[in-house]
Amino acid sequence: MLMTTTSTVEGRPVAQYLGVVTGEVIVGANIFKDLFASVRDIVGGRSGAYENSLRDARETALKELADEARALGADGVIGIDLDYEVLGAQGSMLMVSASGTAVKLG
């Protein structure tokens, strides 16, 4: 499955537009990750726990997007947009959403 943030694929014209596809993931923050991240923020550096959670959520959202496109018979998704949103009480959850246009490429 070819997936891109661009609206075209060089050398591969769009033969058919199949519709908008999406993938969403909501992950809750873990108290131990929060505690560790707070310590890292105080002493500086990066929070590996949060970075890994964010990476996993993004990859899962993109996999769901590709699965939905595949179910429509697509061989590509163009114009992919990734959005991140903090939800819940005191920002206790993170939502990652991916959307794009499923296409058949020529």
Structure notes:
Belongs to the UPF0145 family. Pfam families: YbjQ_1 (PF01906). With 106 residues, this protein is α+β, with helices and mostly antiparallel strands. The chain has one domain: 2-Layer Sandwich (Translation Initiation Factor IF3). It is built from 2 helices and 4 strands. It is elongated and about 45 Å long. The model has no long low-confidence stretch (mean pLDDT 85).
Per CATH, the class reads: Alpha Beta
Q: What is the tally of beta strands?
A: 4
Strand content: 35-45%
* Secondary-structure content class: alpha+beta
Distance between the termini: 14 Å
Runs in which pLDDT lies below 50 for 5 or more consecutive residues are: none
Into how many domains do the coordinates divide?
A: 1
| SSE order | EEHHEE
Q: Which overall shape is indicated by the principal axes computed on the Cα atoms?
A: elongated
Look at the structure and name the CATH superfamily. Answer: Hypothetical protein apc22750. Chain B
Radius of gyration: 17 Å
Protein name: UPF0145 protein DXH95_13100
Family: Belongs to the UPF0145 family.
Pfam family, one: YbjQ_1
InterPro entries: UPF0145_dom_sf, UPF0145_YbjQ-like
